[in-house]
Specification:
Number of strands: 14
Shape: globular
CATH superfamily: CofD-like domains
Order of helices and strands: EHEEEHHHHEEEHEHEHHEEEHHEEH
Strand content: 15-25%
CATH topology: Rossmann fold
CATH architecture: 3-Layer(aba) Sandwich
Oligomer: single chain
Helix content: 25-40%
Radius of gyration: 18 Å
Length: about 300
Amino acid sequence: MAAPIVVLAGGTGGAKLARGMYDVVGEDLVVIANTADDVELHGAYVSPDPDLITFWLADEIDARGWGLRGDTFAVMDALRKMGEDVWFNLGDRDLAIGLRRTRRLNEGARPTDVAAELAETFGVEARVLPMTDAPVRTQVKARGSWMGLQEFLIREGGEGPVEDVRFEGASDAPATSEVMGAISSARAIVIGPSNPIVSIGPMLALSGMRAALRAARAPVVAVSPIVEGRVLKGPTAAFMEWGGLTVDAAGIADIYAWVIDGLVADERTDRVPLLQTPVLLSTPKQRRSVARETLKFAAALR
């Protein structure tokens, strides 16, 4: 295997870019996935970001942008009829994945092992690496109350303003040896167009992660999640505003200034070396184009 292309990803934007990268570099792709969104529901351990990325890489993502294509929701419907509070709508096949993950973890398997097994099941040749095997949880404070990120996004509709954010366990949680190895051997490291606070932030908060990225021989490039001046999906703006960042390319450059060698965005900023190019990822052609242009830009910065 050649030196890998490493993508840090969480949420839909990161997963879409990972899909474009997979088309371009195939099995040389390593995706480091945020696990601070993980949640235990109905006896199942659900790991939304690694699973989302795997579904995208396998071309099994549903048209709604999450879950498996054509999945049914019979179990959730039955639970609702029995009076259960079903606020996280999990498809039947998705539930099966979570239940198996619970069993494998109880048997002593690492989350990294379970993610690799899932990728193999779906025929994905790229590696999808959980950022850590230790528990980390993003907590959000809104309307005076602390809650898990999934509760904030789903139960509360992601409505700001965001009052505070913390990554419980992150400072004591080491990135895995697989993650560290991928970063140290990479030929390019790309921070995906994910929410910089709650999707990428937990990864950067891990013990040793900042030092590893600073020491990396490969260029580090971020792709902006701001498309034509706006956020296409999710409460990225609310979290950036909480962080005192402008919701534009300059804000993305500012939050990553300590680590990136360049930024890919569709608007100008003089904060860092810039590749100004379209960053919309709606179609396979667009995803491949952004991936190729990002890798060319990274190679020029090396």
